[in-house]
Amino acid sequence: MKTIIAEKPSVAREIAGLVGASDKKDGYLTGNGYFVTWAFGHLIGLGMPEDYGISGFDKASLPILPNPFLLTVRKVKKDKGYTADTGAIKQLKVIEQLFNKSNSIIVATDAGREGELIFRYIYEYLKCNKPFERLWISSLTEKAIKQGFDNLKNGNEFDGLYQAAQGRSRADWLVGINATQALSIAAGNGIYSLGRVQTPTLALICKRYLDNKNFTVKKYWQIQLMHNKAQVDFKSISAIKWDEKQLADDTLKAIQRGATATVTSVEIKSVTEQPPLLFDLTGLQKEANKRLKLSAEATLNIAQSLYEKKFITYPRTGSKYIPEDMWAEIPNLVRALQNREDCKQALTKIKWGRFNKRIVNDLRVTDHHGLLITDKVPSVLNADENKIYNMIALRLLEAISQACGKEITDVSLQVLHYDFTAKGCKIQEAGWRSIKGSFTDDGEEPVQELPELHKGDELAIKEAAVLEKQTKPPVLYSEAGLLSAMETAGKEIENEEERKALKNIGIGTPATRAAIIETLFTRNYIVRDKRSLIPTEKGLQVYELVKERKIADVAMTAEWELALQKIENNEADAGTFQKEMETYAKSITDELLQTSIANTNQPKLNCPRCKNQQLIIRDKIVKCPDEACNWVQFRTVCGVQVSIENVTSLVNKGKTSLIKGMTSKAGKKFDAYIILKENAESSFEFEKNKSSKRNGK
To answer: Which CATH number covers residue 567?
Structure first.
């Protein structure tokens, strides 16, 4: 017998159907010489400090450097502690029995770092020594699975992948556990969660937020002219940006006295815009966030669902290319889209026999190729699945289309002794831009079409106006912008040599970036404000504490990603990497334990109910330490964080300032004051009728 182990029950059922294992049992299927079973994601993980006999946060125990690392069954939170997941224990027993009854194992977990880790941790925990082979596939279509079974690979070929996954897992443990405990001990005021990738990501958000907030906006003025030649209206703009409106107004008056514009130069150049490459996961998440306002995690979940339904290839890919041997499949995928209403218009723009091979590059394909549709085309999907599928399908059509050819014209003009410029664009060959019919990128203004102009032409001025403009601060990160910054962390690095060394290396991986962003939300370090990511009070506090520390260093985190890639490719030693991580964990622990936490920032407030205890102020609650009194005020009320200033005002004056943008249980937005009533119970007071409703706790 052979045991096939998949990552999820749904995938196991697909495989079981193909290998003839149709007899359903509790936790597995069997038949035709196979047992087919499954994990539920990470059944086994690294043990927590309690598993090493260390309870609570104890300075004397730091740094915690496990040797060896212990593996434990997945735990779930219960009451105040953690307990083993009963479902995981049950499934693990099933897997153990099947492994014992089998001669060999076929690993069918997702073909990537995390999938490899899920299996290997189970294999190691069960002390299994049966030989295993690897099913390595990029889609779950019947054809792909059958080809995969015809080309099973020796499990040892993926030792590098496992060592990289294990190295990442242990590094995150060493940094996360030690740094979190060290800073929390130093603070003595709640838990300050830190992480190997989480903290540099938070640093990116906070730095951008502060740069934006501290930016001084300056006004300036330009003059815009309207011309007409050969029945074509077009605009030009002054090269000068005046700091004083009066100077611009004076110039405008001079121009309006009948001046004409003289063309001083015309420069025409042809520009070729190559089509975009296929989506990798990060690219898809960025596009979905920009166009559909979907979070990175939501996009990944939708893509995973489409993959499991066999409509697209493996989504957790970091590549935008396909290997040479897949090129022959592309015409079949394009033909398959002929049955899809949403793609019919785009398919009329495709030039058969002239497909662009730019996406073919064996050297740029990592574990998996770029995101593709399969030859199984969906007929019924939910709204978001439909949009994501169309995004992937249309990107394929764009990628295999010809380049877009543009003629860009730059014109210089002179009015009196002032310089003006006009820019024009003419599409010569629509190419890939015809697929969606969009000839400029999002956020770009369409460039005007100019008439034929020559040096020395005299142009009348139909209209002239002063435009008021202002300098723009660094834009706050949206999720798409943050994903870009994580993907190209090297661009954030100031040292030029380091930046070159880390070109194309980001922080996190395509598969983990969504989870890192979601962790920052869970930790109450960041919130969404429309489409922008804004640090909370707590997020900024953590940033201020660690911004000069190694743990916030984007370059160092990017270097680790590079090291893990080398381990995966068998170019670096996993043991050396772990020793480096242990040394690093020691140094950040020492560094953070010596951090001076300015609790002076926190006001000293007396309990409004018992009047004789000083309140404990945390990021989620403000409470009286006297259990007999037990006064408490939550810091998040109807979806809005109550600031320290408002907490102080509530306790000392019995009323906050007007808090805007709260959301009722019915989902309606409202503004209100939080007030203290008798016995220090909190309630709302509304602006118009000052009536008190709902309890504000």
So the answer is: 1.10.460.10
- Residue 600 domain flag: no
pLDDT band at 558 (very low <50, low <70, confident <90, very high): confident
Is residue 691 domain-resident?
no
Number of domains in the chain: 5
Angle at which helix 113-125 crosses helix 86-101, to 10 degrees, equals 80
The residues carrying an active-site annotation are: 314
696 pLDDT tier (thresholds 50, 70, 90): very low
Q: Please compute the mean of the pLDDT values over residues 438-444 and round it to a whole number.
A: 72
Instruction: Quote the pTM value.
Output: 0.82
Which residues make Cβ contacts (< 8 Å) with residue 261, sequence separation at least 6? 225, 227, 236, 413, 414, 415, 420, 458, 459, 460, 461
* Within a domain: 571: yes
356-382 residues labelled b (16+ CB within 10 A) or e (exposed)? bebbbbeeebbbbbbbbbbbebbeebe
**Phi, psi at residue 198, to the nearest 5°?**
-60, -45
Angle at 643 between CA 638 and CA 646, to 5 degrees: 95
Mean pLDDT over each residue of the chain, to the nearest integer? 91
Q: Is residue 421 domain-shared with residue 542, that is, in the same domain?
A: no
Q: Quote the domain boundaries for residue 556.
A: 167-213+475-594
In order of 66, 123, 217, the CA distances from 87 in angstroms are 27, 18, 57
Q: Which residue has the tokens 């090297």?
A: 490
Residue 626 shares a structural domain with residue 643: yes
